[in-house]
Amino acid sequence: MIPPELMMSYGMMVGSGRNKRIKKGFSTVWLAFIWVIWRTRNEKVFNNVAAVAEDTVDMIQRLSWQWFRSNTAKGPCLLYEWVWNPGDCMLRLTVSLVFYLQGVGCAP
């Protein structure tokens, strides 16, 4: 079910994250979703280009993955892993960071 207000959808998606990093990842996915939908809508309105649902979903997945990777020092997953389960990639980043911090003596 789609929430009646845009900010409610943001709050529902980002609020479901278990920690700060996962919430940031969900925020990235939500922003990519809004951006691609807006661009797809503009293509239809201004250039009369028909939208294909599969292409739109593919663009959302690729863009959110690119944005997620650009916000991390080391990308924790490949595109096919992101498409399969972005939450796992976000969780993997959190676990990797904890192990790294423990290794340098900065355990949370």
Secondary-structure element order, N to C = HHHHH
Instruction: Note the main sheet.
Output: none
- Overall body shape: globular
- Helical amount: over 70%
Average of per-residue pLDDT values: 81
Whole-number count of domains: 1
Portion of residues in beta strands equals: under 5%
Q: How would you describe this structure in keywords?
A:
108 residues, mainly alpha
Concise synopsis of the structure shown:
The protein has five helices and no strands.
Describe this structure in words.
With 108 residues, this protein is mainly α. It is 74% helix and 0% strand. The chain has helices at 6-15, 20-47, 53-70, 79-84, 86-103. The longest helix has 28 residues, at 20-47. The model is unreliable at 96-108 (pLDDT under 50).
Please outline the helices and strands.
Layout: H1 6-15, H2 20-47, H3 53-70, H4 79-84, H5 86-103
